Amino acid sequence: MTTLIRAQGPRDLLAYVPYRLGYRPRDSVVLVGLRPPRGRIGLVVRVDVSDVAELEHGPQLARTLVGHLVADGAQRTVLVVYTDAPLRADGAAATPVRAAVEHCRDAVEPLHGPVDVWVVSSTGWYALDCREDDCCPPGGRPLHELESSEVGAHMVLAGTALADSREAALRIPRAPADARRRAARAARRVQDRAPAPEGGRPGASGDAACLAEWRSAVDLAAASARTAGSPTAGSVPATVLGRLAAGLGSVPVRDAVLVSLVPGTRDLADRTVRGGDVDAGTGRAIAALVDPVAGVAPDPAVTDPARAVLEAVVGHAPRGCTAPALTLLALVAWWHGDGGRAGRRLEEALAEDPTYRLALLLSSALDAGVPPGWIRGDVRAGAGGFG
């Protein structure tokens, strides 16, 4: 079930942005795309102030970000700056932040006209261009106004938690020691049944069983959203998570899981896991992610429960067998346009297995700045001036 949240004005929008990101931004610029017909919030992208303020590459970065918003259907853009720099006073301390704002304005205004810029500091919030003390006092309006807004109250009542930092939001917590031990024992039993020539991977029957357990775990995570507000894997047994960690070491299982994230591919996933259609199945799934013509946008109803299960696998898995799950998490994040999260998961995957081929391929795509196919296709069709 999806709950519609209406942001009636800037106060509600500013209250919502941290929940959309999952943490309270600092030293950040956030661009919020507003889509028709009534200014619905669309794509939200965040970038470090220092990156978009950079004189040589900052303007191009801003144009690229705005291009993604346009591809998502935005007809207006709101700019939110999270900083304690004194933007209303003269002085060098605010120079980088002002540069970041101007680079973003220069990218937005040719398409959407004048852009509203809001500033959120550690002590208050205000409109950058407002000089009316009654509306935006020198120290900004108090932050508790955002927390007590209708949107803020809704998110709190829904049990949605905010991390204190981006680092904390990206961290996958480790499961309790007892749960990890049970998962490790289950993983060893799967690996012990695998034929040695295949490097410890289960055979075809084991692969099919692993795919079935994957689907059951994802169904449990999806069902949890009805009570928890968002998918969680808390009801998936540690032993199942351990078996999934070991099973994902089989390329057919990993590829079948990847295929299963693409709409309308259930039969293809079954064929992939049996080894009869591995190349074709993977090729179709990869095309859905990367091809500007065949690319499709991810469906959160599918990818959110899958991400919850994969994160639980990583949190329970014994060291040395999380590279496949981490790489799949990176793919999901990149498909959603979350390059920062994708990069973090790839760093973790390659730290565990520097030779893991799929992680290396995706890392090359991120290094080259290649966006998902559905974004490139939309940009090609309707926003070709960006890039």
Automatic annotation (TrEMBL):
Region Disordered: start-end pairs: 173-207
Organism from which the protein derives: Cellulosimicrobium protaetiae
Pfam family, any one: DUF4192
Stated name of the protein: DUF4192 domain-containing protein
Highest taxon of the lineage: Bacteria
